[in-house]
Amino acid sequence: xxxxxxxxxxxxxxxxxxxxxxxxxxxxxxxxxxxxxxxxxxxxxxxxxxxxxxxxxxxxxxxxxxxxxxxxxxxxxxxxxxxxxxxxxxxxxxxxxxxxxxxxxxxxxxxxxxxxxxxxxxxxxxxxxxxxxxxxxxxxxxxxxxxx
Length: 148
Hints:
By secondary structure, the chain is an all-alpha fold. The protein contains six helices and no strands.
């Protein structure tokens, strides 16, 4: 029971770098590993999407109080962000978030650049289920080969 809680909490922040290796270390069955990592990842997406929305709303309130619009500078970093956003979109960000980014960062970036909270949560949840199933089945296949 405690091991499942650790996997859920770890998957809520890092799916591939946290929850999946931890479920392997605890010797979970493939179904148990997939269930706990999916639950943790979806929980993380919901929590961090709402938290990111709250942070972005507070930032907008702060900018309104300042009333002075900062001058936009087009640096190479800004150009790279815009180019990446236009090329890969929300789908690309939601695919790489469980692999390379953490859910807090991925959800924040998705809300910051794409804005639609329900769409962000839906894409991220599908990505969580896909990567959890893929990595769990790959791990089960590798265990079958190594034991056989």
